[in-house]
Amino acid sequence: MSYILRYIQSDGTQKESEFDSGESTIDLSNRDIVQFDVSQLRSNGRITELRLDGNKLSRVDLTPLRSCKKLQTIILDDTTDGETILSDSSMEKISKDVVYDEITNFDSLSYLPSLNSIGYSLPYVKKREPKWKLIHLFQNALFVQGLGWMGLLHISIQKTERLLKELTSSGNTDKIQNVLLTLLIDQIDQGGPTIDLDV
Question: Which of 19, 73, 91, 155 could make a disulfide contact with 49, Cβ separation 3.0–4.6 Å?
Fold first, then answer.
């Protein structure tokens, strides 16, 4: 049995590499990768080594690797920052040393590439982190779904959390789009902020 890992190269093309599910080493080195969603590996119980060296990755979110129980080695270039939205203390409590040691940027507000990646970080952010990080994840989810043009929605933390949970569990459904559009229209009608609104 095998599985496919997807990544984006420097010319913008999306590529795939097939790996045998029994392989313990995932070698993605020297493939001209500029973006790789590590959440693709979150349920890989066999991986012991991940190689991402020799690529053009400036940063990579390593949070999902905390669930790879057998992982012993992560190889990144010196120019690649291992990142997480979680704080240093949170990550130290929940991850293996091999993941924690590769993280150079904690509390990172960089772009996460998929709803899977956002959804993976969500329970830890809800439980251990300041509420402003939920707003960041929500805005990130809007961008992933092509809704970044809506700008910053001025809604409660509870509503942000509920919508974020819906987005990460079921994607950009018509129901969620209608709710988001209604919120945006109400915000505009009430003279609310239109930060980053792009119409």
Answer: 73
